[in-house]
Amino acid sequence: MDLKELESFIAIVENGSVSRAAAALGLSQPAVSKHLAHLEEAMAVDLLLRGRTRSVPTAEGLILLEAGKAVLAELRRATEEIHRSGGVLSGRVTVAAGSIPGEYVLPPLIRRFHERYPSVSVSLEALDSRAASEALVSRRVDLACLGEDRLPAGYVLRPFVADELVLARPAGAPPLPGGAVTLEEVCNLPLLGRIDGSASQSLWESALKKQGLTAREPTLRFKGTGALLRALKGAQAYAVVSRWAVAAEGVDFVPLDPPLTRTFYVAHGHILTRAAQALADFLVEAEEGFHDVDKTVHVSD
Length: 301
What we know:
CATH topology of the largest domain: D-Maltodextrin-Binding Protein, domain 2
Strand content: 15-25%
Structural class: alpha/beta
Order of helices and strands: HHHEEHEHEHEEEHEHEHEHEHE
Distance between the termini: 38 Å
CATH architecture of the largest domain: 3-Layer(aba) Sandwich
Largest sheet: 8 strands, mixed
C-alpha cells in the first residue's frame, strides 16, 4: 500500500465514485481505479460496495477509511512541523508545455504540487511543442513538457505520462462501422487540423507517411486543441487529436487502428534549482495516462 492509493480510496468514498474522485484529485480515472484495485488485492477484501449512482465502503472499507484519514492527518502534521523547522522549500519555477500537457495534463498536477509546497510559485505557459522546446533551450523557462524530442544534445528527458491519438467526431455524426477506424479510412474523411508546431500533428503526419497515405488537406487549422474541438462541435468534420483533450472537452471519439500512442516528457538541463527539481520529480512520479509508461530517463542526442 502507498499513500497515493490511500488518498484515492478516501477520495472515492468522500466523492461517491471513481470519476468524481479522479476529478477532485486531478488524476485520470484509470489511475484511480488502479489504486483501488491494488488496495483491494493487498487487503484481499472488497473495500467498496458499487452502486449505480454511488459507491459506499464495506465494513472493512470503513476500518481502512478511518485509519487512512488518521495516517494522512499525521503526515500533514509532520510536514507542517518540518516546514516550521526552517526546511521550507521555496522559490519560483517556470514551465513551458505543448498544447496538450499545458492545457489538460499539467494544471491539476501543478495545483497539487502547490498544495504540497505552498512557498513555491509556478508559472505555466501553454504553447506548442516546438515553441516549448525553444523556450527551454533559450533558458526562458526551467522545465518543458513535450510530446516529442525536439531538443539539441545534452538535455535530460524524463518520461511523464502517456497519451494516444483518437478520431474526434462531431455530435450527431453517424456511427462509423467497427470499434475502431483505420488510418486509411480517416484519410477519406473531412478533417480539421492543427497549425505546424504541434506534436500531435507531427505524430499523425508521420504515421500516414509510414503507411504511404495522404489525408485530405484540412480547410481549417487551429493553433490550440481547445479551439479546434470547439469548432468541431458545430462542424461536419472530424479531427485527429489527443485522448486527453476529448476526455476533458466531452467530445465523442473513435480509437484508431493501429493505435497511435506517445509519451510526454519532462525536459530540463542538468542543473536545476531545488524548487525546479522538486517539481520535475513530482511530475514524473504521476500515474496519469491511458497506458503504462516506461520511465527510463535518457538524454537528448
